[in-house]
Input
Amino acid sequence: MSKKTILVTGGAGYIGSHVVRQLGAAGEAVLTLDTLATGFREAVKAGELVVGDTGDAALLERLFTEHRIDTVMHFAAHTVVPESVADPLEYYRNNTCSSRTLLKAAHEHGVRHFVFSSTAAVYGIPDGGRAAEDTPTAPINPYGRSKLVTEWMLRDLARSGGPRYVALRYFNVAGCEPGGSIGQSTPNATLLVKVACEAATGRRPGVSIFGTDYPTPDGTGLRDYIHVEDLATAHLDALSYLRAGGESTTLNCGYGHGFSVREVLAAVESASGAPLSVSEKPRRAGDPPELVAVAERIHDVLGWTPRYDDLDLIVRTSLEWERKIAAGDPEAYWAA
Ligand code: UD1
Output
């Protein structure tokens, strides 16, 4: 009997492509569905790529009919917080309504396992800057809300006979595949490590620190930066867990400790060997001072064992990819 297929939406994007690569290396049969709006064909290192939208019910019907899909990993989404504030309905369309369309098709076609890319943004501004899975959800932007509604749909559907699921709440994802075969090339990046590495390689003039008056040790925002390769492994662990009959669950994905903006920039300077042009700006709207995972549960439930819990390594792998882009390396890809 041939292997069951894993449908990966958003598999050509930053995080999805790292998961697709690991799934391929593990011998899984993978089918990627991606609009290529922000993803890259070259990033898909395993299985077939179908170019299309997760919200396209007719396309989903065809894919679920033609392939023996028993697992869905759902990455396809808009992910830029300020954009979500400016255009909330587009975020609800893509992140919430399309997720509903996907869930409906998956359920109708008997999909058994669902792994969902959720976000630490569902917590908003938790007390003390730390969030456990049972910390009340109180998102402060449409991005976080658009993802939280999908968590609710998953939970309700699972209770009425739908797929068992693992919802993974990502903290701050950074870094690139250490072998340099794929990386983060998302256009118009806003994420700190990516922005700083672009500045270090001359692709932008400098980097801004948004807020130096936070109640944190050095006044800048604190975040829990997790290497994308460890995050990808969490998805494979979630798959094994669901296949072994694990109950539906929601898990934080972070290391459980944070770094400030200044610490991140210092790590980039040390990796690149040159100072960055840094300007201090006012706080960015909607940024919590501190957001760090309480991360025990994912270890306990999935047996997840991170390998790259090291800011210097995270930054180095990001910088190596950025240097490939800057040098026009044929292995790299980027938006024109
Ligand atoms: C947010 C979301 C996260 C989402 C991500 C992508 C929250 C709590 N988290 O992460 O779920 O996936 O956006 O949009 O909403 N910073 C600078 N200069 C920069 C860029 C960032 O100082 O040029 C600072 C920010 O103020 C923050 C930290 O660096 O303190 C990290 O910011 P960023 O990388 O944008 O991620 P988040 O906003 O934490």
Residues 79-81, 119-121, 144, 172, 190-192, 195, 207-211, 221, 223, 261, 284, 287-288, 291 surround uridine-diphosphate-N-acetylglucosamine (CB under 6 Å). Residues 88-108 form the longest helix (21 residues). The chain has ten helices and 15 strands. The mean pLDDT is 97.
